[in-house]
Amino acid sequence: MRYEPIKKSLGTFFRRSVILKKLLYILLDLLLLRSWHVRKALKKIGPFLPADSSVLDAGSGFGQYTWRMSSKHSGWKISGIDINSKEIAECNDFFRRTGRSGRVSFLQGDLTALDEKNCYDLIITVDVMEHITEDEKVFANFSNALKKGGMLIISTPSDKGGSDVHEHDDASFIDEHVRDGYGMEEITSKLGRAGFSNIKVSYTYGKAGTISWRLSMKYPVRLLNVSYLFYIILPFYYLLVFPVAYLLNIVDVRSENLSGTGILVTAEKK
């Protein structure tokens, strides 16, 4: 299932104006369960970070997490990095037009080539590591880029059905993924070797979250892969589905999931 072309078409529509881009951020915050878990982690970690923290949004995409962090923490200086130069240009333009370019900037770059030392108090990377083959190199780069005691937040699929892979011969829901998901022990070991401690891993997208994901993401993306004509139907579909998905998201983010198709990781640089 190809996800990137749909993502690009959505980006093309919502970049038409500042108002539409802000609406996109609101919709992503409401619909994407991973954003709920990332917000929860940021709310927990944020008070312990310096008021003038330097932050890296690693794999910044549309820039929705940078937007939220810059809205909640006016003293933070945030850098976004992404391999997609078009996304970088659009984010720089949007944040300039919204008056935040003085404390927010975006650069095109490859995380496997990230070469910064002791620069950041916080790095977040959301739905990125499943796209990168050389993951241990990236984890080491994150460790080098963080200040001592700096924090890392990762959201990525798990090996318990992440990428909608439940059996050995299942195909990934998203063709662009290079791995279906991480096991808790696997990612803990890799982060430990990279120089992290106090590593906490929890499951996301438990039973309630998986149902929400199917309703709000899987089925719409499948329809749009058949025909873009389904964009016309999509708003009416979400009017019916959104209240259910919203309640399921609340259940998932407030639960201690014993298993789940996603994982949320926090770790501290030694």
Q: Could you walk me through the main structural features you see in this protein, from its secondary elements to its overall organization?
A:
The chain is an alpha/beta fold and 270 residues long. Helices cover 47% and strands 19% of the residues. The chain has 9 helices and 7 strands, in the order αααβαβαββαβαβααβ. The protein has helices at residues 4-14, 18-31, 33-45, 64-72, 85-97, 135-145, 184-194, 207-226, 230-254; strands at residues 54-58, 77-82, 104-108, 120-126, 146-157, 196-204, 262-269. Strand 1 (54-58), helix 4 and strand 2 form a beta-alpha-beta unit. Helix 6 (135-145) crosses helix 7 (184-194).
Cα gyration radius (Å): 18 Å
What is the count of helical runs? 9
Give the helix/strand class. alpha/beta
The mean pLDDT is: 90
* Uncertain parts: 165-173
Shape: globular
The arrangement of helices and strands along the chain is: HHHEHEHEEHEHEHHE
What is the tally of beta strands?
A: 7
Write the layout of secondary structure elements.
Elements: H1 4-14, H2 18-31, H3 33-45, E1 54-58, H4 64-72, E2 77-82, H5 85-97, E3 104-108, E4 120-126, H6 135-145, E5 146-157, H7 184-194, E6 196-204, H8 207-226, H9 230-254, E7 262-269
Parallel strand pairs: 1-2, 1-4, 2-3, 4-5
Antiparallel strand pairs: 5-7, 6-7
